[in-house]
Amino acid sequence: MSDEPNHEDTPEEAVELGALPLDSWHRARGARMVPFAGYEMPIQYEGIVAEHEWTRLSASLFDVSHMGQLTVHSPEDDPTLGARELEKLLPGLITSLKPGRMRYSMLLTEEGGVIDDLMVTNTGPHLGLVVNGACKWDDIAHLREHLADEVTLTHHDDFALLALQGPKAGEVLEALVPGTGALTFMTAGLFEYDGGHIWVSRAGYTGEDGFEISVHENSVEKLADALVADERVKPAGLGARDSLRLEAGLPLYGHDLTLDIDPVSADLTFALSKKRREGGGYMGHTRVMDALENGPATRRVGLKLEGRMPAREGAEVFAGDEKVGVVTSGGFSPTLGQPIAMAFVDAAHSEIGTELTCRVRNKSLSATVSPMPFVAHKYFRGN
Fold this sequence. Notes:
The protein is α+β, with helices and mostly antiparallel strands. 20% of the residues lie in helices and 33% in strands.
């Protein structure tokens, strides 16, 4: 789940922007700030490629406090009601989610389109949701409209969210917050820090090992200072987070996922458990089941391009003279040293190895349908 801007995106129109809890912290460290998702966000510090490569080599600290942190509370006399209600809106199994476990899922429309992708965590006392920043107000409205009145939805807008990502993230955080090193990918827990508590999830959106840390806004600066005081950690902006998630083959909401795209065509069937595929019972399941049974008309695929020129979002994809798709995310891969992209193409042209072309500035760039992730995930699943 990610909603970072491409570093060449056109800035948003002038609107009243919110400030992150670490706004002055970012500026003091030389961050270049850009408008995004209603906030001024750090897009880079020393440079996107340098920050990208440091994340692959060591550990980077990203501020993703623009994202929405929500909790769903069940009534005391019906402790599973919240999970059952969420299963009416999400295509994943929530009732079987054990305490300390996380699951990727999506809010769907009645027509099966993706309203947002999100993370659900069973914290024990309640269910925690992390939703994309650009969608959070619509998500909250959707949830409040459809959840039972007995279920309480809380938006924790006084909490910041930091992402510590990279191969050295585990040892860095364990030294600062003992016990976090025992977490494995898609698990989470509550930990003591600085006389209080922080919520730590072993997850992220870079393809690297790492953590997302929920911390009260009054304590986030001290935590950020402590993390970057370690020479293995540098701050990084949303530009590097975007290039990392592209290499990891992870979809970006508003680009690779929209209201017009269903989970099957988006190649996210891993988020549809067997029980939910067979039983349905969630909003949008009719379209999802049809796509599962008959195949989607289009599919999200990875493309590797020849040369150095990237194909950005909106570039048309051709098989010979026939237009067969469009690029939804694209850029130059620092790790691979070549342009890569995600695109939705007609199912008939989605097989690995299919030769296609992308039209960019009146040029035809040779492209090949390639497996994703482009760069292997390095999630920590235990020794």
